Amino acid sequence: MLKIKNLHASVEDKEILKGINLEINAGEVHAIMGPNGSGKSTLASVIAGKEEYEQTEGEIIFENEEISELEADERAHKGLFLSFQYPVEIPGVSVTNFMKTAINETRKAQGLEDMPAKDMLKKIREKSELLDMDRKFLSRSLNEGFSGGEKKRNEIFQMAMLEPKLSILDETDSGLDIDALKIVSNGVNKLRTKDNAVLVITHYQRLLDYIVPDYVHVLLDGKIVKSGGKELAYKLEEQGYDWIKEEMKAL
Q1: What is a single molecular function from GO for this protein (predicted)?
Q2: What angle is formed at CA 106 by the lines to CA 105 and CA 111, rounded to 5 degrees?
Q3: Are strands 29-33 and 215-220 parallel, antiparallel or unpaired?
Q4: What CATH number is given to the structural domain containing 74?
Q5: Full residue range of the structural domain in which residue 236 is found
């Protein structure tokens, strides 16, 4: 589904990603871990097409199509979804209206007509029930006055409504207490199918107790330096990253 080859990227002329190689297949969950400043959020942003990041080298192939030249909204219409670490507030735009617009813009890009109102309402009801969301929540302005947990749950609700092929969760666990973490993780797990994939970016192994990855990758200084199964996350939790740095020096 996603194939990244020798990806280099910079922000304000500072090189952050220095040759990332990664493959994700349908039905898989991949986790990327690494210390602060290693390039995790930059990788998420570059895949999603955020314009302040410059891709200087390499390829991003999504469903056999090179998407490096596509704008962020074009990538979203093809089935890429990025859940932000710090979701923005949009006063005056309700959660429901935001979702209607997002879904219908994607349908328009695919040559389809707007989703009929009754179908939209049915979908909103089904997905909010799936995520145990209070219906009053849907009439509130997007993220305005939301707690950290509410913002993250709203991101997962957007993911449920849009049904992306690849969801990138950028430190979805930051700022969440254990109850909110369980709710968000449960939502992600309910939305997993054999046809979609998830890339989880996290500092902490605790999230991976709830969203169990097939593969864990360690990002250090702009490169993926080690990959393994979920047991790699436990080792990182216990021992930190120094042992990997020592391994790298020995090479």
Answers
A1: ATP binding
A2: 95
A3: parallel
A4: 3.40.50.300
A5: 2-250
Picking from 240, 159, 235, the residue whose alpha carbon sits closest to that of residue 200 is: 159
Burial of 221 per CB tally in 10 Å (0-12, 13-18, 19+): middle
**Cβ-proximal residues to 125 (8 Å cutoff; 6+ apart), any chain:** 135
For the chain of 251 residues, list the mean pLDDT of each consecutive stretch of 10. Answer: 94 91 94 88 91 91 93 92 78 88 91 92 88 80 77 84 91 75 83 91 82 91 91 87 84 68
Number of domains composing the chain: 1
In angstroms, rounded to a whole number, what is the distance separating the alpha carbons of residues 103 and 130?
18
Q: What is the Cα–Cα distance from 140 to 150, expressed in whole angstroms? A: 11
Residue 194 CA to residue 214 CA, distance in Å, equals 13
d(CA 98, CA 106): 13
Neighbours of 161 (CB within 10 A): 21
Task: Please give the pLDDT value at position 79.
Answer: 92
Residue with tokens 């393994």: 228
DSSP state of 229: -
Residue 88 sits at φ, ψ, to 5 deg, of -85, 155
Which burial class, exposed, middle or buried, applies to 177 when counting CB atoms under 10 A from its CB (0-12, 13-18, 19+)? Answer: exposed
- The 3-state secondary structure of 78-91 reads CCEEEECCCCCCEE
- Joined together, the tokens standing for residue 204 give 């902490």
